[in-house]
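Check out a protein:
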Amino acid sequence: MTHVLLIQLPIPQLNFGKQTGNIPLAAACLKQVAEGIPDVAVDILAESIASYLGDAALIQLILSMRPDIIGFSVYSWNVERSLYIVDQLIAHYRPKIIFGGPEITQDNPLIHVPQVDFWVYGEGEAVFRKLLQDQKFWENKCASESVGTTFSTSPSPYLRNMLEPEIENMMLLETQRGCPYRCAFCYSNKSRINQSFVDDDTVLDSIRWAIESSIGELYLLDPSLNIRPGLKSLLKKIRTANPDGRLAIFSEIRAEAVDEDLADLFVEAGFTWFEIGLQSTNPQALKMMNRPTHLKRFLGGAKRLKNRGILPQIDLIVGLPGDDLDGFGKSVDFAARHELCDDIQVFPLSILPGTDFRRRRHELGLCFEPHPPYTVIKSPTFSNDDMLLAFDYAEVRFDAVFHPMPDLDIAWRLDAGKQGAKLVDHMVVLGKDHYISKIFINSARSLSQIEKLAQNLSHPYQIFILADVCDHDHIRSAMEVLTSANPFTPCELIFLEPESLPKTTSLLSAVKLRRPHYLDTEQRFLFPSPGNRAVLFTLVSERSRYRFGGEMQRQVYWWKHALLPQRADLDGLSHLDGVVIDSKVPELALRDWQERFAKCADEIPAICFAQVSTQKRWLLLTAADEYAEKILNLEKPND
């Protein structure tokens, strides 16, 4: 029996339990087409495990399974980590390695390494079946092959219970592949020249399954829903299947295609949100990215959706060839003037492999990060300073933050009201095993103990430095041990009432994360200067004087008062980065406080609760759509 394991690693983040969007739909499609092949068993590393395991724990889990073939779905955010995992695995045994996904292009030097046995370009189903049935096919080393009618006639793998929609209360559904547009910055058009569409009945089967399974949201992954033939007819059928709008449906669309009739049908079918790529209003930028846009028609379509209660998310890109700071400002002003900023996304241009901008990078004079996500640093018309000023202008104009700091989520107490209780590592259950999400460093914990614990960490994890740890070298050594075993896993250091300010520069020099980490590049514009974005330092103190702050540093007030803070108290602490509430008050009083202040959470300093269960409740009150309740509910102490 040949055992195949399919893996998709998540976008890195600094808050454990936050939704990752790491739904292995591609892997499920592969597993589905492999069914029926004799002597082959295909498993998917579950989203709830792959998304929240640190590097060392993930490697140990794969080694315990010892699959014969391992397939990785490779995206810009996980390509380097996937390669690292492969290196570590083949040091112990030699499985066959397959790489597929958007990063697999002829012009991507990162992925063409001897450790990978086969690269799949574009759609993977037909190639995957051949690899499982014909040993000689592996000798080709790479292949690209259309799936033909398999895609248009196959049911969604959700119907076979191959995925975990309960984690994010969402189902992903492809109803089309291929895109007729040829935008120079985009992945979507490179894997397929023509378009293929799933049959209406197959789409409806998926929608009925989602409703019957009490799934709240459905995301149609189509690159542009408006190109589907017979779209209005399909929407009428969806309206019948989803008459009360119980299932909220999202997708992407070209706003110019939305007329009055189509807008009405979207509402009746249950659509509540569309991503609409404006990207720019600069004629030269639109021409150079090969994206003709009729702004008057764009505006009409977007407003038709908004007037019907469908939220349009408008995308703008900073750093496009042909654009400059003034042109970008006019794009921002256009969206603001026409009240299209209720949900707006502003991000820097990425020069992705396989795109026209990557092919023409020298001709266009584009300077960009060579590491994912390949962010533009400057162009002939957009300096590095202009990039920073562009984000500043957009944030002020839209009253928004496009590169926020991680959430304040540093709860550490397991026993309510027991401020002096013994602090123990916090465990989470992922799959059938226990992993550490919060590790405590005290003066009695040896490096040999920390080395063992480093093999069992979540992704990300937190390190609590207790007040009795005065040995800076011990903290440095602990950091080196933990990050050496987990070089792609972000982490946060929390100092509980330290005697002196943490020496962050020294500590960072001991960190063994692979640099630049994905977050270092992806969050480049969080601060003016490039550098660390994957290690966060948080100081917790009863002192309210601001004394610890800088890049990836924050100080929060440790509220231990007998009474819970009121609005005036919180306003008086607004110069700090947040407040950790650690008052010994009845549970009912805490719940009442949370109910009242959750309504104005955006207007007060960031709030966290020292008690773990109370903090979970706060997160689900204030950010329920951002956290995976299934993951948060698994936390328990390490006995």
About this structure: The longest strand covers residues 271-279. The chain has a mean pLDDT of 94. The CA atoms of residues 85 and 91 lie 10 Å apart. The chain has three domains: 2-143, 169-398, 426-637.
